[in-house]
Design a protein that fits this description.
- By secondary structure, the chain is α/β, with parallel strands linked by helices.
- The protein has a single domain (4-227), classed as P-loop containing nucleotide triphosphate hydrolases (Rossmann fold), CATH 3.40.50.
- The chain has 7 helices and 10 strands.
- The strands form 2 sheets. The chain has a 6-stranded mixed sheet with strand order 6-7-8-3-9-10, sandwiched between helices.
- α3 (104-114) runs parallel beside α5 (148-160), α4 packs across α5 (148-160) and α5 (148-160) runs parallel beside α6.
- The two termini are 16 Å apart.
- The mean pLDDT is 94.
- The chain binds adenosine-5'-triphosphate and magnesium ion.
- The site of adenosine-5'-triphosphate has 13 residues, from β1, β2 and α1.
């Protein structure tokens, strides 16, 4: 049996603006097993980023339950959430979110600094993982000395270096041209084949097809899509 690492039950997220209430996630049920490569496909405004923020413990649901690695998340205070976030989640964003004044290697070392890993080990682990994503020659470059695809590889290395439970990517190819985006998807597929668990948010059906499993979110409702694998 596959190991379940994430479960949401009847999860609801409501935003209140003045006296207007908007229900953005309308009772989401979702299970993710270790080793899944899940694509969450949906149009603009459907609630994808809201869902990603909850999966990534950046926000909490209004009601319903959310379990991550067996822990019940929805009632935890921010300090506990930030611990879980650092341990369990590797974030990958559309705009890479690298620190411009730091080298590729220093960017990858950052989460290890937060985790209290000593310097020598940080250097070894960041160098290893940058080699893994094909950037052995570029470790000393700053982000503006790298192409978009290379910057996204640095961001992927930064997400991988702490060995998180889930890689969580919001439109990871959204800022890249088609060919570069394709190369990044090839890297995701390799990581999937190595056993990594990936959740990827996208509005692009062709990008979503790279996943082993697709769910669709439309107007805050989630439904299981087709299985590729
Ligand atoms: N902090 C917030 N306060 C109030 N409303 C919000 C907030 N965040 C999102 N919303 C609303 O929730 C809905 C879903 O937004 P969300 O960002 O999750 O969509 P999305 O699917 O990620 O869209 P996109 O593809 O454009 O990124 C939108 O109607 C948005 O206006
Ligand atoms: Mg979004």
């Amino acid at each position: 049996m596959k190991e379940k690492i994430l479960e949401m039950k009847n999860l609801v997220k409501t935003y209140t603006m003045g006296d207007e209430e908007q229900v953005v996630l309308k009772g989401i049920d979702l299970k993710i097993n270790r080793g899944d490569f899940l694509s969450v496909l949906g149009p603009s405004g459907s609630g994808k980023s809201t869902l990603m923020n909850i999966i990534g413990c950046l926000d909490v649901p209004t009601s319903g339950s959310y379990y991550l690695s067996g822990e019940r998340i929805e009632d935890l205070p921010e300090t506990a959430l930030s611990h879980i976030r650092n341990r369990e989640i590797g974030f990958i964003f559309q705009q890479f979110q690298l620190l411009p004044r730091l080298s590729a290697q220093k960017n990858v070392e950052l989460p290890l600094i937060y985790a209290g890993v000593p310097e020598k080990e940080r250097q070894l682990r960041s160098a290893d993982i940058l080699k893994r994503v094909g950037l052995a020659e570029k470790m000393k470059n700053r982000p503006n000395q790298l192409s978009g695809g290379q910057q996204q590889r640095v961001a992927i290395a930064r997400a991988l270096v702490t060995e998180p439970t889930i890689l969580l990517a919001d439109e990871p190819t959204g800022a890249l041209d088609q060919q570069t985006g394709h190369q990044i998807m090839e890297l995701f597929k390799e990581l999937y084949q190595e056993g990594k668990t990936i959740v990827m948010i996208t509005h692009d059906g062709d990008v979503a097809k790279n996943g082993s499993r697709i769910v669709r979110i439309v107007d805050g409702n989630l439904s299981e899509g087709v299985y590729n694998a």
